[in-house]
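quick one, 120 residues, struct below
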Amino acid sequence: GGAAASGGGGGGGGQDMGGIGGGGLTDSWVTVFGFAPDEVTTVLREFQRDGDIMHFSSFSRDPNAGPANWVHVRFASRDGAQRALQRNGQRVAGGSIMVGVKPLDAAARAVIVAEHGGVG
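---
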């Protein structure tokens, strides 16, 4: 069986090498959004406090889309990602930026698995 697609934590212990269904290797990824594109460095610096950031990208496929107001972030551990998820709706950078944090949606998860083997 697979894990339900509704948010939240929980789940099994080890890493699921299948990648997509229950999260597995993508469990250490989150999507951070709601900031101006020129604030991405400041936002990433704040989230580095939750755990080591191994990779980040907006994975924008449209070269004409312009800079994104979100970034997908891979932490070194699932724990770092879980700490980041707790920041949803909180202000960072001295209170000047409010961010949203959510687990990867299906589309972002598929891109990461296809292009990065679920790791990044």
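The mean pLDDT is 78.
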